[in-house]
Design brief:
Largest interface: A-B, 26 and 31 residues
Largest sheet of chain A: 6 strands, mixed
Oligomer: heterodimer
Number of helices of chain A: 0
Strand content of chain B: over 45%
Order of helices and strands of chain B: EEEEEEEEEEE
Number of strands of chain A: 12
Helix content of chain A: under 10%
Radius of gyration of chain B: 13 Å
Shape of chain B: globular
């Protein structure tokens, strides 16, 4: 079945450091790919998405590129801030989702802590 | 501002109790979902509903049931709570149709079963 694997966490960085959170997936066909972020005490919210190969999603300084050849969707940010401290989830939606377009498969989540 | 509201932020129940988790959305969304979130396991889909009175099992439906009598409300029911159901429960919704894949989440209910 479909699955998403994220890099092991937690990740601890100093402010202004470069961030990479790895995400690879297994799916039939060409799924849509997402990054969601969960700030402390809140629900998840969509950070960025890509719906086809070579698409780049971007938002709030974060970027991720849909790489079909490596089945990856790594999240990057050039200079993190303390306010980026959160849990980050990679997710996919398969093309054959049928009636529901919200049946996402999530990765394990990666806790990011940024220190001043 | 669009909202998905879960009735309780924290809930403590005893083994064997019947537990109701409520979720309400104000966005007129057709689709509603219940996930549970556990450390190291990410989010796993319990049940979802794509219309009033319609429901489908997700990946881990055992020990749970759901109810959707009105479009805006989706309830998760633990018929007889067990300690392995201690978890964070997240409700989500979105509009039907391929042009909108974004899920809107509630803040979650942390359930402890003692």
């Amino acid at each position: 079945g479909d699955s998403v694997t994220q890099m092991e966490g937690p990740v601890t960085l100093s402010e202004e450091a470069f961030l990479t959170i790895n995400c690879t997936y297994t799916a039939t066909g060409y799924p849509s790919l997402f990054w969601y972020v969960q700030y402390p005490g809140e629900g998840l919210q969509l950070l960025l998405k890509a719906t086809k190969a070579d698409d780049k999603g971007s938002n709030k300084g974060f970027e991720a590129t849909y790489r079909k050849e490596t089945t990856s969707f790594h999240l990057e940010k050039g200079s993190v801030q303390v306010s980026d401290s959160a849990v980050y989830f990679c997710a996919l939606r398969p093309r054959h989702a049928g009636t529901s377009y919200g049946k996402l498969t999530f990765g394990q989540g990666t806790i990011l802590t940024v220190h001043p | 501002d669009v909202k998905v509201t879960q009735s309780s932020r924290y809930l403590v129940k005893r083994t064997g109790e019947k537990v109701f988790l409520e979720c309400v959305q104000d966005m007129d969304h057709e689709n509603m979902f219940w996930y549970r979130q556990d450390p190291g396991l990410g989010l796993r889909l319990i049940y979802f509903s794509y219309d009033v009175k319609m429901k489908e099992k997700g990946d881990i439906p055992e020990g749970y049931s759901v109810s959707r009598e009105k479009k805006e409300r989706f309830s998760l029911i633990l018929e007889s709570a067990s300690t392995n159901q201690t978890s964070m429960y997240l409700c989500a919704s979105n509009k039907a149709g391929s042009t909108n894949e974004k899920l809107f989440f509630g803040s979650g209910t942390q359930l402890s079963v003692l």
